[in-house]
Amino acid sequence: MENYICRTCGVQYSETDAPPAHCLICEDDRQYIGAKGQLWVTLSELQNGHQNRIEDVDTHLTGIGTIPGFAIGQRGLLVQTPSGNVLWDCPSLIDDATVEAIRSCGGISAIAVSHPHLVGSLVDFSHAFGNAPIYWHADNRDFVMRPDPAYQFWDGETLPLLDGLTLVRCGGHFPGSDVLHWAQGADGRGALLTGDTIQLAQDKRFVSFMYSYPNMIPLNARAVERIVKAVEPFAFDRLYGGWWDYIMPTDAKSAVKYSAERYIKAIST
After folding, report:
1. 46, CA 20 to 30 Å: which among 92, 124, 212, 236?
2. In this structure, are residues 220 and 212 in contact, taking their beta carbons and an 8 Å threshold?
3. pLDDT one digit per residue (tens) for the chain, 269 residues
4. Rounded to an integer, what distance in angstroms lies between the CA atom of residue 78 and that of residue 90?
5. Is 46 exposed, middle or buried, given 0-12, 13-18 or 19+ CB atoms closer than 10 A?
6. Residue 55: what are its φ and ψ, rounded to 5°?
């Protein structure tokens, strides 16, 4: 029995004797089936030829991403606080070196993800650190591909975690898409960890918002307005997207608001 991992989206599934016939994540219209069809890999196969790049992104913030790139290619972020650490978004690869590196930073007290495309092998990460709770918005319950007792389903618009870390439901990409607000981030000016719920643009003065990135399906104006309204109560100067270089170092809150106005104007013209 293996927990197979989809090669296209990187999501790990429950144990089966053979690769699943379908990836429900990739068959959803926000994702896609690769040109070679549905392909799977086991964790041991992934460990053979891949490793994780683990390095500091900022003070008390460590990035974890797989090289060579795999699936969607996101890098997770380990936010370190005096009361414990939160892993935000997960790569598909976990190995002994990754576990030891995380332990040297203080381990994992909780796990959260922006949406179901960026979960990787989060159950294995949970098990490696004493079944750390996985906080998952109930609106995305149907997209859990490897059920486990570690899941803590939450409802509503915000969920405080620890030491000024708060999950904020934004919707948009998925009904339960969220971001992680870090009050002490950016040297106390506040930071927002967004995955691609709020996506940093190539011109890093701006962000954008999509229903499907690979299929280039935009969100409507009401959904974008809802995202901006969800993060409005929170102070944040810096924004960390879901990939290594996706960082807006300063004035991020103003950029989100202005970018939303620009986006809505463009789709309304």
Report:
1. 212
2. no
3. 899 999 999 999 999 999 999 999 999 999 999 889 999 999 999 999 999 999 999 999 999 999 999 999 999 999 999 999 999 999 999 999 999 999 999 999 999 999 999 999 999 999 999 999 999 999 999 999 999 999 999 999 999 999 999 999 999 999 999 999 999 999 999 999 999 999 999 999 999 999 999 999 999 999 999 999 999 999 999 999 999 999 999 999 999 999 999 999 999 98
4. 10
5. buried
6. -155, 160
